[in-house]
């Protein structure tokens, strides 16, 4: 048993240190902008349902995730004009306020603004064919969006 465990440990260690032929390692992995955006799209859906169902804790979490993705996009892809990045700053701020105030009306208004800002950048950056909209149904049957206790 001990041998098996230490063996597994060695395999894991060598896996962690492994580099692909292109010199690609865990420490210099840079996600593609399209992948950062794909994750943002999922969070956009989750944020929408968390807000709709007044799960403010989850909404705050998903908003943070979106903010981090935007930060990553701006840092890793400085080719994105700053003006396009600032498009989202105001709606993100308003969403934060709505979540703190636990105000569903303010939340849905700010969510529409955020969605327009997503498209604003896509249009400005020559990706106007990527059109984001407020989701109407959740594709996540494996996650609960209702708050644990009634809001
Ligand atoms: C500052 C600019 C900018 C903002 C803001 C922005 N995007 Fe994007 N988005 C891009 C760019 C550029 C691409 C194309 C990436 C590529 O071609 O690699 C993209 C691509 C996408 C894609 C396509 C990814 C795929 O694999 O299908 C989705 C989905 C997406 N964005 C969602 C969003 C959502 C949702 C928001 C708002 C919450 C948002 N984006 C805000 C610049 C932006």
Structure report:
64% of the residues lie in helices and 0% in strands. With 151 residues, it is an all-alpha fold. The chain is globular. Mean pLDDT is 85; it is low at 1-20. The structure holds heme C. Residues 32-34, 37-38, 40-41, 44, 66, 80, 84-85, 87-88, 114, 117-118, 121-122, 125, 127, 130, 132 line the site of heme C.
Main sheet record: none
CATH class term of the domain at 32-124:
Mainly Alpha
Tell me the CATH architecture of the domain at 32-124.
Answer: Up-down Bundle
Bound heterogens, unique: heme C
Helix content: 55-70%
Query: Considering the protein shown, what is the CATH homologous superfamily of the domain at 32-124?
Result: Cytochrome c/b562
Count every helix, treating DSSP H or I runs of 4 or more residues as helices. 6
Q: Tell me the β content.
A: under 5%
SSE topology string: HHHHHH
Q: Output the structural class.
A: mainly alpha
Shape verdict? globular
- Terminal CA distance reads 50 Å
Give Rg in angstroms. Answer: 20 Å
Fill in the CATH topology of the domain at 32-124: Four Helix Bundle (Hemerythrin (Met), subunit A)
Instruction: Give the total of beta strands.
Output: 0
């Amino acid at each position: 048993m001990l041998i098996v465990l230490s063996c597994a440990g060695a395999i894991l260690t060598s896996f962690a240190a492994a580099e692909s032929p292109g010199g690609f390692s865990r420490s210099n992995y840079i996600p593609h902008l399209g992948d950062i955006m794909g994750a943002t799209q999922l969070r956009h859906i989750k944020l929408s349902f968390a807000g709709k169902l007044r799960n403010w804790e989850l909404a705050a979490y998903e908003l943070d995730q979106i903010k981090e993705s935007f930060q990553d996009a701006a840092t890793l892809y400085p080719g994105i004009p700053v003006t396009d990045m600032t498009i989202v700053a105001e709606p993100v701020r308003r969403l934060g306020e709505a979540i703190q105030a636990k105000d569903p009306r303010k939340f849905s208004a700010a969510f529409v603004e955020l969605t327009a800002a997503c498209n604003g950048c896509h249009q400005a950056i020559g990706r106007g064919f990527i059109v984001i909209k407020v989701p109407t149904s959740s594709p996540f049957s494996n996650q609960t969006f209702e708050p644990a206790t009634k809001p």
